[in-house]
Design goal:
Largest sheet: 5 strands, mixed
Strand content: 35-45%
Structural class: alpha+beta
Helix content: 10-25%
Number of strands: 7
Strand order of the largest sheet: 2-3-4-5-6
Shape: elongated
């Protein structure tokens, strides 16, 4: 289970309008998002302001992290330097405030006069992960025929298949059929 990042609502945040700066790093061994697993060598850095608004506690700030995963095209290492924003609302009774806000705003619970910022810090990085993770923008990927990494050079499959025809391509049968019916193709 992930470690919490607990901020106690003590004397520093007792009055409406009072604010506290919270900064640091959440250490992460493996960071799992869906079916992807990333390593986070330096953790997730955060710089947040926690403010008592009177009825709620507002948390705003920024996060950043370097994630290391696998490139979706060539399966080599991909490094992502991500920066995200935190904008979270906490309340004693989250349901009471959720009705007054837009449907896409989630109000999180205050539990025993404390809030846990770890989930919002992790979520701010998760939403910044691109749909397609690449080692570089111009990654050429793997050859669909031999599996060679095309970033390392041309494997020759494309030229060979253009000359010989691709046995895995169902359209190559049409090329062979056309050649056998075309009398000029034999000469």
């Amino acid at each position: 289970m992930a470690e919490p990042l607990t901020v106690r609502l003590d004397a520093r945040l007792a009055e409406a309008g009072s604010s506290v700066a919270v900064e640091g790093v959440i250490a992460e061994d493996d960071y799992v998002v869906g079916d992807r697993v990333f390593t986070v060598p330096d953790g997730i850095a955060f710089d947040l302001d926690v403010t008592n608004t009177g009825e709620t506690v507002l948390c705003m700030g920024s996060v950043e992290a370097e994630l290391i995963g696998t490139c979706d095209r060539c399966l080599e290492e991909a490094r992502l330097n991500l920066t995200g924003e935190v904008d979270a609302i906490f309340a004693d009774d989250p349901d009471a405030f959720s009705e007054d806000l837009d449907s896409d705003v989630e109000v999180l619970p205050i539990v025993e006069d404390a809030i846990d910022l770890a989930p919002v810090v992790r979520a701010a990085i998760a939403v910044e992960i691109p749909f397609k993770v690449l080692c570089r923008e111009d990654c050429k990927g793997l050859c669909p025929h031999c599996g060679a990494n095309l970033n390392e050079g041309d494997c020759g499959c494309e030229a060979r298949l253009a000359a010989e025809g691709d046995p895995m391509n169902p359209m190559s049968v049409l090329r062979a059929l056309k050649s056998s019916e075309d009398p000029e193709a034999e000469s």
